[in-house]
Amino acid sequence: MSKGSKPTIRDVALAADVSLTTVSYVLSGRHGGTTRISQPTQDRVLAAVKELGYVPNQAARGMRRGKTDVVAVAIGNLEWPWDRALATAAARILPQHGLQPVILLGDDWRKFMMSGGADGVIIGYFPEAKSADETVTELARRGVAQVVISETMEPAGFDVLAPESTAGLAECMDFLTSSHSRIACIRRASPAGRPSSRYGAYTAGLERAGIPLDEDLVRTSHHRRDTAYQSALELMQLPDRPTAIFATDDMEALQAIRAAYRLGLRVPEDIQIVGVGNSTEGQEYDPALTTVGPDPIFEQVVGVLLDRLAGATPAEGLRIPSPWKLHRRGTTLG
């Protein structure tokens, strides 16, 4: 094995002093039929794998070709409009290129990718403000194709699609404060000592307009549909109810519309509602959701990963900015 190159199945066979077929059988678990491999031989192969840092491909075809023809899409929750739109785009586009998409929720993608489960991964599931990730770094070292959706991470052997939300969020709050003084907020999670970009944009927008922050107008959904719905009901039944709601995700905004209809309120005549994300679901809702977000990027994200798989992007990676803006639609006036 040359210095700096990735270990191959041939390197494992040489180190363990066995045939390629034996290594293939040990790693794939195929010990039945007429093939019998002694336990000491299996142990020797596995020890060579560990020593060399060889990553076996999970697919049988991968054992022969070094490819799985699988692409993973790592998202948080299929109930979230943004995540669902990304998964839908991948499921539609990847098979056209002979690739099988696998949707992974939460942190499950880490183990799957580290075991060689896919040729590439689109990672849309990261906490805000995360600037580095050990799994991403290790996968890049192994040469795995990756596209990460992150405001803060920098390319390092992988590509980054970087949402640039600050200007769009500020535009949204200036739009709301020009007509409203009672603006509620349904946020995804508590700031926990650090203002998130979206909730921080809400408080900053109020401050620019000279409107005091009223904690009674703030609710936390924990990114749950039922909690977002109940939060909106509570806000709209306050004695001095808000005339507008800024939701820090399209999912919360859509639940707020449901709550308004439940209470017999008209949107946007009685209450105006704005979300964040510019999801496909929000665009197709009735009325269409006013929201802050990029122009649709889901096809672009999949395309960037296809380019990296094809070797059409620089090895060091690309940072692709994705500016956000206010998309005025049917849930607001003006």
Note the total helix count. Answer: 13
CATH architecture heading of the largest domain? 3-Layer(aba) Sandwich
State the shape. elongated
Taking the sheet with the most strands, its summary is: 6 strands, parallel
Helix content: 25-40%
* CATH topology descriptor of the largest domain: Rossmann fold
Q: What is the domain total for the residues?
A: 3
Distance between termini?
Answer: 66 Å
Record the strand order, biggest sheet. Answer: 2-1-3-4-5-11
Mean pLDDT: 88
CATH superfamily of the largest domain: Response regulator
What's the total number of strands? 12
What is this structure's SSE topology?
Layout: H1 9-16, H2 20-28, H3 39-52, H4 60-65, E1 70-75, H5 81-93, E2 100-105, H6 108-114, E3 120-123, H7 134-141, E4 145-149, E5 159-164, H8 166-177, E6 183-187, H9 197-208, E7 218-220, H10 225-236, E8 244-247, H11 250-262, E9 272-276, H12 280-284, E10 290-293, H13 298-309, E11 319-323, E12 325-327
Helix pairs in contact: 1-2, 1-3, 5-13, 8-9, 10-11
Verbal overview:
With 334 residues, this protein is α/β, with parallel strands linked by helices. The protein has 3 domains: 46 residues, 434 Repressor (Amino-terminal Domain) (Orthogonal Bundle); 128 residues, Response regulator (Rossmann fold), CATH 3.40.50; 128 residues, Rossmann fold (3-Layer(aba) Sandwich), CATH 3.40.50. It is built from 13 helices and 12 strands. The strands form 2 sheets. A 6-stranded parallel sheet has the order 2-1-3-4-5-11, with helices on both faces. Strands 7-6-8-9-10-12 form a 6-stranded mixed sheet, with helices on both faces. Helix 1 packs across helix 2, helix 1 packs across helix 3 and helix 10 crosses helix 11. It is elongated and about 80 Å long. 40% of the residues are buried. About 2% of the residues have low confidence.
